[in-house]
Amino acid sequence: MDPLIQALGLVFDPYVLAVIAGSAVFGMFVGAMPGLTATMATALLVPVTFFMSPVPALGAIVTATAMAIFAGDIPAAMLRMPGTPASAAYTDESYAMTQKGQLNLNLGVNLVFSVAGGLVGVAVLIACAPILAEVAINFSSYEYFWLACLGLTCAVFMTNADPVKGFLSLFIGLLLATVGIDPAAGFPRFTFGDVDLMSGINFVPTLIGMFAVSELMRGAVTVDAAGRMVAQEVGNIFRGVGAVFRRYWFNFLRGSVLGTAIGALPGAGADIAAWISYAVSKRFSKEPEKFGTGHVEGIVDSTSANNSALGGAWIPALVFGIPGDSITAIVIGVLYMKGMNPGPTVFQENPQLIYAVFTIFVLANLIMLPLGWAAIKSARQILRVPKNLLLPVILLFCLVGSFAMTNSLYGVTLMLVMGLLGWFLEEHGIPVAPLILGLVLGEMLEQTFVQSMIKADGAAIEFFTRPIAGVLGVATILIWVVMVGRAVRRGMAPRAA
Amino acid sequence: MRLNDALLGAILLGFAGWVWWLTTFFPAFPGQDYGPNLFPRILAVGIAVCAALLVLRGLRARGGLLVLEGWARQPARLLSFLAIPGAALFYILASDPLGFIPTAFLLLLALSLWFRARPVVALPVAAGMTLLVHWFFAGMMRVPLPRGLMDPFL
């Protein structure tokens, strides 16, 4: 029990609690503003957490993302604009409820089921992660190579984007990761004699560029579009939620479990969890004809799912060092910056840290209830913050945050270049999330690949002889085959799109 | 702004070729078959394959080489779009000679006025946020933000 008590001591420290409270408010605000995403909240937080010790740093990220995913539901219900992509799946349904005069019930359901779903995700994380870590401790470079491959493949497979463009994004990310001193021989690659590039493509400015600056560029085009006003007054949001729970408790459980599982899949995060569980809810509903007319059933499934996915995404991140979504990709980057390599050894060497993360997760979900209530009550004010002042301020945060990572203009220049690149890629339907995962996992993938090749002396069969490596390898190759098959079928079929 | 898939693929094919060409300058280590050039070359091949598929698809679909959305044809919106990278470029060029405080203040003020904020609001917000960010990052976080013109006063 000793590490658990140590963990509680680490978390219930006034400084850490203050950081958690501050990031909760920050996450609520960013999530509730349409156009600012949970990933962007995390990207902007990283430069600040850079100066903290691991526990408050992780606490800030966990709390801010949990709040942002819930807060995205508020503008979805009030303005039919999802605050984050994770709320997009049921935005129309929420707004239809509002038009039927059920705004209070809708917000209450969103808040209570977000909290409950989040707690289910944490429970699964707490139950599964240590067991998986026991297994993972015996992994060799072969297993890690296949795990990284599987994670990266899933990242492409799970996005709705076209697989060719997904892989393109992934390869570009992996290639960016090779810039700098090569891990095996110590030879500087693709640096063109530049000293800054020797240290590699710094992860945080890249992240800020891809997720924040490119978003600002898109936002700047529509900044003059007038925001709509919230028509309805918010009353008692908790009335009627109990009845919904009694009627749809199975939907809640199904949504949370499905959300956790999807979150744990590498590459798929809260937004995909919400889409899938909404579809599942409709498919198995007794009254599917009511979906889309302001029916609460699908909202219960999907609002539970997107919050539970957050906890799920941490399972592969903590156990294997393979991120479950773009937010945990950032977390892994932060852990590396703190000199802690995520993976099963953390469970043995720093168990108090793992318990601290669990504690923060539970805490974050619990304070979501009062804070979410406050955010709903002040939603009119939050949604009234003018974009024409907000965009420049966010840009300033981006600039200073990127500068702080390198203490030089290299960070800012990198941010600008990556912002333009990210915007260009997204314009062409090339998703940026696989690129970020590739950048984070690139070094590990290359290292385990080259190590395994040297050990096997080039014999490909060696990659499959260990049992777990064999299963992972076959699974990865099967997914590749399915993807190629899909692409071929699409190419053969008479062109529809 | 959207390039035709064929054109985008052709650009990426060129890029993959360039990466491969660069790896030919990496040193080989005697007795070591898997050197620093192995992994980048695999990636270059991967990019080339995806790019070739894009070229094929683009050629079959035809269509214009470049598609511009509505906003890109409206000068004011195009300028709004360019204002964000432009402001970042301004920061890169000006922050060292001017210092963080004047650069950030000018940047915030100019951007919010361009986005049609009222000067009565934009001025205090720009001044307040500049000082707040400076206090937080330079004071609390000890980030060496450039002092520039303000050096005598800080």
From TrEMBL, chain A:
It comes from the Bacteria. Residues 17-437 form the DUF112 domain. Pfam families: TctA. The chain crosses the membrane at residues 12-32, 44-71, 111-132, 144-161, 167-185, 197-214, 257-280, 313-337, 353-376, 388-410, 468-488. Keywords: Membrane, Transmembrane, Transmembrane helix. PANTHER family: TRICARBOXYLIC TRANSPORT PROTEIN. This is Tripartite tricarboxylate transporter permease. It comes from Falsiroseomonas algicola. The lineage of its organism: Bacteria, Pseudomonadati, Pseudomonadota, Alphaproteobacteria, Acetobacterales.
UniProtKB/TrEMBL annotation, chain B:
Pfam families: TctB (PF07331). Residues 7-146 form the DUF1468 domain. Keywords: Membrane, Transmembrane, Transmembrane helix. The chain crosses the membrane at residues 7-26, 38-56, 76-93, 99-115, 122-145. InterPro entries: DUF1468. It comes from the Bacteria. The keyword Translocase does not apply. This is Tripartite tricarboxylate transporter TctB family protein.
